[in-house]
Amino acid sequence: MKKLSGIKTVICDIDDTLYPSTEFASIARKNAIQSMLEAGLDAGAGRAYAALSAIVAKYSSNYPHHLDRLCEKFGCLGDKKIIAAGIKGYHDTKLTIQPFPDVPRTLLELRLRGYKLCVASEGFAIKQWEKLIRLRLHHFFGQVFVSEELGMSKSKKFYVHIAGKLGNAGNCLMAGDRLEKDIIPAKAAGMRTALLLASQNGRDIELNKPSSKYIDLRLRTFSDLLKYL
Amino acid sequence: MKKLSGIKTVICDIDDTLYPSTEFASIARKNAIQSMLEAGLDAGAGRAYAALSAIVAKYSSNYPHHLDRLCEKFGCLGDKKIIAAGIKGYHDTKLTIQPFPDVPRTLLELRLRGYKLCVASEGFAIKQWEKLIRLRLHHFFGQVFVSEELGMSKSKKFYVHIAGKLGNAGNCLMAGDRLEKDIIPAKAAGMRTALLLASQNGRDIELNKPSSKYIDLRLRTFSDLLKYL
Predict the structure, then answer these.
(1) Which one of A32, A163, A164, B27 is CB 3.0 to 4.6 Å from A89, fit for a cystine?
(2) Distance (Å) from the C-alpha of residue A113 to the closest C-alpha of chain B?
(3) How far is B114 from B56, CA to CA, in rounded Å?
(4) pLDDT, tens only, B24-78
(5) Which fold has domain A9-19+98-228?
(6) Which CATH number does B22-96 carry?
(7) Which helix (H) or strand (E) holds A175?
(8) A-chain residues within 8 Å CB-CB of B108?
């Protein structure tokens, strides 16, 4: 297995890279619906979950009124008790948030081998920091770059900016699960890239097609980094 | 501030060293009693808490029937519903367990400076490991020595045995909160010692009296280790 030379900094995405965010969101939404049903939402659990999933897809995950739209659909718009129950069900689930099993020991080992670690993440700064802290991974990272704070989403410009802060794009390895967000623009900015395959189930990525030229490493799981560094 | 030379391994106690176990136990017992009252225990909260504290003191913290004795005192011996409520209240509190705030970053920094880290703890192996895992500190420690597994409590012999496993007592620093368990026997085995003062409130330790000769470092808080190493 060929080692990657010259890397000094490993930059990590958070969602579906450090922890299974897709799975977490699914569980949290189910728990929100359970609480809302218990509080009086008049719907079947399956239909309510499907409706909530459709609402999230339509309005994006950071839209703040998913549950209002859900109540609207089932004839209880404005019922604060049901909304509050949903919020409680969702937020209680955060207590169960866990990193991918190999992530904590891999981050520690990378630090011990002398690599700097950073985060590059799309979203709201407070929300992304809350995840790092709940995962108890925050101490590993020297710098955390979040799109909201930088005022730009994950584009080539975003990664050029980060590379400027870290010194040299050629010494950076960007690790993430999204070809369009983590791999292609990071490579365009001169970084090396590692694509997490663990989260690719059902995602329509043609890994052996033209996108191949953007991917330096394919990681079956996060700890595979240790084989290449 | 004089640095300690020749230390290669830092050995840590768990309870009241890595996390505030006394405070945790107090909160967990209060939550156990709240649950038992809710389930029908016929007692005042204050009296029930005082009774439970007395039972723990009398039978030791590892005695498995504290709640049976508590029910006995308040006339509901054998009431499984009340016992179960108490167990639930106690165990749910474990979800809130947190390290002392400076512990995770201090352990990481010690590892980055090249020190080996170990644990030396008195108690049952499974219970002590559960604490390390819940605290998410388990990856920092190369070896974990628990009295149950070694078949001896924290005596000079216990520390001599550990030093044998680690190489040389003179390269070891034992950090803990208990003079009798962590400091005096470790020193007798040839280790250097660091006493945590944060947990000494109300404990009758004459720090400037004869015991002084056993204490190499007095730590106001765990991160003070970084000043001496």
Answers:
(1) A32
(2) 9
(3) 41
(4) 999 999 999 999 999 999 999 999 999 999 999 999 988 999 999 999 999 999 9
(5) Rossmann fold (3.40.50)
(6) 1.10.150.520
(7) strand A172-176
(8) 108, 111, 139-140
